[in-house]
From TrEMBL:
Name used for this protein in its record: 2,4-dienoyl-CoA reductase [(3E)-enoyl-CoA-producing]
GO cellular component, one term: peroxisome
GO biological process: fatty acid catabolic process
The species this protein was found in: Hondaea fermentalgiana
GO molecular function: 2,4-dienoyl-CoA reductase (NADPH) activity
Keyword hit for NADP: yes
Length: 264
């Protein structure tokens, strides 16, 4: 059952088995929903079981075949466990979407070493851990796809985001590296750098709980904040044959820097 606004056929990725980390909420859930609406079987992973159960119930209501795994992307046994679940339940794994992340605002001089390490471990180590544990199944599938969700925070500098900008820029590097090394195995690896996306824990946290969507939209070339469906549809495109020559790319939502550059 595709959303009415989707330009894609509802069966465009029929049968593709997709694993989405952070799939219980926010951008990850939006991606799980959009890919599932277009025929994918979806496994979602996160740390909070109740979120996962609620998310699975919503996906199943839409007719999406789904399963969940409560685990931590930082742990190798959890990464292996969720890949095993996808393969045992649905027979294969075709797409890994790394959307899990942790974030909070913290001035650099007040950020403990453990706080810095924690975000690096969730975001960066989590991405690499998931990729390396999913590699055998993605290779086996013959047309594996990895999508790493990063951010635009690190394209310039962002107040109180030293940990997250370090992690996200490194994720973009990992995306290009794996695209280079795993293209040989038929695996395409791309990133999406979403910018501000409405109704997500990330935007709520970074806006200090205030709804500043209108103010933020003024700095975005397209004139609005993004939606989780925008990121879902971009992920969908990257899974389809239309993107069969695209690997090592990062799809970026241009921000206020681009708008400022416009000539009077
Ligand atoms: C300062 C903090 C802090 C805060 C935690 N720490 N929260 N420091 N300000 N608000 C410090 C702790 O004091 C501790 O250091 C260290 O970080 C580890 O904290 P834990 O709570 O033990 O870690 P953990 O349980 O692993 O929790 C991780 C978390 C958590 C990131 C802190 O908030 C989390 O996972 N949240 C849910 C996911 C999430 O944030 N999603 C949004 C992603 S948005 P000490 O020194 O005391 O031991 C995103 C960007 C999108 O990624 C961009 C949009 C524009």
């Amino acid at each position: 059952m595709a959303d009415v606004n989707s330009p894609f056929k509802a069966n465009v990725i029929a049968g593709r088995v997709v694993l989405v980390t952070g799939g219980g909420s926010g951008i990850g859930f939006g991606i799980a929903k959009t890919l599932g609406d277009h025929g994918a079987k979806v496994v979602i992973m996160g740390r909070r079981e109740q979120f996962l159960q609620d998310a699975c119930a919503k996906l199943e209501q839409r007719g999406i075949e789904t399963a969940y795994y409560a685990g931590d992307v930082r742990k190798e046994e959890d990464a292996k466990g969720v890949v095993d679940l996808a393969v045992s339940k649905f027979g294969r794994l075709g797409t890994l979407v790394n959307s899990a992340a942790g974030n909070f605002l913290a001035p650099a001089e007040e950020m403990s070493l453990n706080a810095f390490r924690t975000v690096l471990e969730i975001d960066l180590f989590g991405v690499f851990n998931m990729c390396r544990c999913a590699f055998p199944a993605l290779k086996e599938s013959g047309n594996g796809v990895i999508i790493n969700i990063s951010a635009t925070l690190h394209y310039s500098a962002t107040w109180y985001q030293t940990h997250a900008t370090a992690a996200k820029s490194a994720i973009d590097s990992v995306t290009r590296q794996l695209a280079l090394e795993w293209g040989t195995y038929g695996i395409r690896v791309n990133g999406i750098a979403p910018g501000p996306i409405a109704d997500t824990p990330g935007l709520t946290k970074l806006s200090g709980g205030r709804n500043e969507n209108e103010k933020i939209a003024a700095g975005i070339p397209i004139g609005r904040v993004g939606t989780t469906q925008d990121i879902g549809l971009t992920s969908l495109f990257l899974c389809t044959e239309a993107a069969s020559f695209i690997s090592g790319d990062i799809v970026v939502r241009l921000g206020k820097e681009a708008k400022k550059a416009k000539k009077a």
